[in-house]
From TrEMBL:
It holds the Pfam family DUF772. This is Transposase. It comes from the Bacteria. Residues 1-52 form the Transposase InsH N-terminal domain. InterPro entries: Transposase_InsH_N.
Amino acid sequence: PRMMLKVILYAYMNNIYSCRKIEKLLHRDIHYIWLAGYEKPDFITINRFRNRVKKEINEVFTQTVVLLSSKGFISLNVEYIDGTKIESKANKYTFVWRKTVERNRERLMKKIHILL
């Protein structure tokens, strides 16, 4: 489980969400090979693991955000520069409104306080 979590988190950090792409990287990219300890799980195994531990992955991300924020590495302040719409990989036909971001930020802060 540790190896799979490391590989998935590293892939997410590099904006790679496809299990098939992760599998290819486990065969080609030295960073992924090292993280996996030279093991090469197939995309089905990666997908099953990811689906089984979704809640835990979300908790790890939340705890990481809290830790980085408390140490001063990141700020939870939201900055707005302009109204540029950026195409998303997940849902290509939507964009995010400011109120939605603020509402979701409040929910995130509530989750963080519950965890702590």
